[in-house]
User: Fold this.
Amino acid sequence: MKQHLKAIIVVVIFAVLGVWGFNHWMGSRVEETGANNYSALERMEKEGVPNFEAKDLAGQSFELKSMEGKIVILNFWASWCGPCIEEVPSLIKLVKEFKGDVQLIAISGDSLREDIDVFMKSFPEMKGENIKIVWDQDRSLMKQFQVARLPESMVLGKDQKLVKKIVGTIDWYNKDSIAYVNSLLGKSAQ
Assistant:
């Protein structure tokens, strides 16, 4: 009986040491990687979205951080996506309503540039100073922003922190949306 008791005590001691060692090792791994207890979305809400550089369809390079001070809508879409097509007119209307205070970066996940070109012919109003169309050919931006399905949009405040993520289509141009954007701009409803 004494032998069994000693064996049980030894097993319990090793188990406790093993659990303690594993927890200690995991704790140091979290510190090394800088990981914390909140998700990528929460990080974007607290710290801002990661900056990126892209080229629009005309080949002009820009950086997201150059748009600080404006409301930015990152809209992930594709020409074959029915709901994406459905929301384009109201999205463009909203951007144009705010005459420069709102910037749209429409990021296409299309496989072929020709598909985007055909789409653009159907929506000539998608051209303008505050609208940038980006072809995410390698889908690196979609990966970076963890886009799961299309359309998906992220509304960034003037400080480039995520204020709203929208998965699916919405009517962008209505009384509530205009009031929401005005509140982000610090303006009273018009």
